[in-house]
């Protein structure tokens, strides 16, 4: 490799490393702002903002979904297995909303400690399988036999 | 080895060789995409939760992979062009940009179409979606910068520097779903663990991914040939070729 080429190579590597370090520092500094949602335990620890809306993400607790008589308002609790937070939402829920499903709600906490959401999004997980496999997995988890 | 590479990088050899590769890559890409699409859209079982909507994965995921892959190729070729001043590397880099931008756009659009029924929203500003959008802007920036400079060799150098700086975004896109809480789900296939997708759903996905890759090979070579002819229009081998008809 000729000296000029070597110099150019070193310059380019130095540039990538420099930009990389700068980006890493910037991204670490903004780490909290890059988080899309808070978990229920973070909310319980008081890490969530009080004065403006935020998002909370967790699993819909099994057996907690209650529909109000107006047909649109839903109450349920969100959990990350360590802390649980009650949520109230009026509006249309996404297709994937169900008990045990991961969801993300945006809104704010009221005085009673209920999270009043104005938007509910379903968080899909990274698992893809045919229904039969899902069924047999469920049976296996419940201690039944797998065909 | 070096002699072979030098010969390959000579415009005339490249022009002849790429002309032979394009039909093979193009036809294999078409076949793989047809097989993958039929297998994925018709034969593969529906998902236990999303039903048939999950099938958009067969376009979305290969397009998203290609958007990252093409960017790395573009930046790599750009760096080779900068260091060794190889004309062909500059041409490959700039020919990759519009293709990569199209893949990025496709990934964003298909993701948005899937997001509405599944998540309940077309778009959110989470880390994965935002960084992928920045990737689209990087591609567009590289193309705009190249187009803005009159002299093609200077333009290639400027565009290559922008492309190389943008490389830091690539690991951010890939790891965004692991480093931060995002609405976008974590990796299904590209992780060290066993893929969390049933094999009968994974195979068509891999076939589609390979098809997309060969499509890229065919189109980038086609674009590169055109760019090469334009740049070399005054050189002897082009004149001779045109005269020979």
Features:
heterodimer; A: 147 residues; alpha+beta; OB fold (Dihydrolipoamide Acetyltransferase, E2P); 2 domains; 5-stranded mixed beta barrel; B: 245 residues; mainly alpha; 9 helices; 0% strand; globular
Task: Offer a quick outline of the entry.
Chain A is α+β, with helices and mostly antiparallel strands and 147 residues long.
Q: What general outline of chain B do the C-alpha atoms trace?
A: globular
> Which structural class fits the helix and strand makeup of chain B?
mainly alpha
How many beta-strand segments of chain A? 6
How many whole angstroms does the radius of gyration of chain A measure? 23 Å
Specify the helix fraction band of chain A.
Answer: 25-40%
DSSP summary: helix tally of chain A: 4
CATH class of the largest domain in chain A: Mainly Beta
Q: What order do the helices and strands of chain A follow?
A: HHHEEEEEEH
Describe the structure.
Chain A is α+β, with helices and mostly antiparallel strands. Chain A has two domains: about 5-30; about 35-120, OB fold (Dihydrolipoamide Acetyltransferase, E2P) (Beta Barrel), CATH 2.40.50.140. Chain A is about 30% helix and about 25% strand. Chain A has helices at about 5-30, 30-35, 40-45, 130-140, and strands at about 55-60, 65, 75-80, 85-90, 100-110, 115-120. In chain A, a hairpin with a 5-residue loop joins strand 5 and strand 6. Chain A is elongated. Chain A starts with a helix and ends in a 6-residue tail after the last helix. By secondary structure, chain B is mostly helical. Chain B starts with a helix and ends with a helix. The model of chain B has no long low-confidence stretch (mean pLDDT about 90). The interface between A and B is large, with 40 and 40 residues.
């Amino acid at each position: 490799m000729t000296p000029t080429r070597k110099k150019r190579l070193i310059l380019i590597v130095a540039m990538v490393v420099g930009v990389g370090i700068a980006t890493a520092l910037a991204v670490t500094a903004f780490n909290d702002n890059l988080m899309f949602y808070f978990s229920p335990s973070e909310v319980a620890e008081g890490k969530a903002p009080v004065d403006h809306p935020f998002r909370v993400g967790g699993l819909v607790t099994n057996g907690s979904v209650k529909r109000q008589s107006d047909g649109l308002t839903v109450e349920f609790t969100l959990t990350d297995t360590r802390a649980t937070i009650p949520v109230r939402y009026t509006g249309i829920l996404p297709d994937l909303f169900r008990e045990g499903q991961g969801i993300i709600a945006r809104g704010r906490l009221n005085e009673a400690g209920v999270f009043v959401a104005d938007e509910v999004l379903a968080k899909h997980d990274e698992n893809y399988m045919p229904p039969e496999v899902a069924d047999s997995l469920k049976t296996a988890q419940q201690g039944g036999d797998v065909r | 080895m070096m002699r072979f590479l030098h010969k390959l990088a000579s415009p005339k050899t490249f022009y002849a060789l790429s002309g032979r590769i394009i039909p093979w890559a193009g036809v294999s890409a078409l076949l793989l995409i047809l097989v993958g699409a039929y297998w994925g859209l018709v034969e593969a079982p529906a998902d236990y939760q999303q039903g048939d909507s999950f099938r958009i994965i067969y376009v979305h995921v290969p397009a998203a992979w290609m958007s990252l892959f093409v960017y790395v190729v573009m930046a790599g070729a750009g760096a080779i062009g900068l260091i060794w001043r190889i004309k062909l590397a500059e041409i490959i880099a700039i020919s990759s940009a519009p293709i990569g931008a199209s893949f990025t756009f496709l990934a964003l659009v298909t993701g948005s179409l899937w997001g509405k029924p599944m998540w309940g929203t077309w778009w959110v500003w989470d880390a994965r979606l935002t960084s992928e959008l920045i990737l689209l802007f990087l591609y567009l920036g590289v193309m705009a910068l190249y187009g803005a400079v009159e002299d093609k060799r200077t333009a290639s150098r400027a565009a290559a520097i922008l492309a190389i700086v943008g490389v830091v975004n690539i690991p951010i896109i890939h790891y965004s779903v692991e480093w931060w809480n995002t609405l976008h789900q974590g990796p299904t296939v590209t992780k060290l663990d066993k893929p969390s997708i049933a094999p009968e759903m994974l195979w068509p996905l891999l076939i589609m991914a390979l098809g997309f890759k060969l499509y890229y090979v065919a189109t980038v070579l086609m674009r590169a040939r055109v760019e090469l002819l334009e740049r070399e229009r005054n050189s002897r081998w082009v004149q001779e070729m045109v005269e020979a008809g």
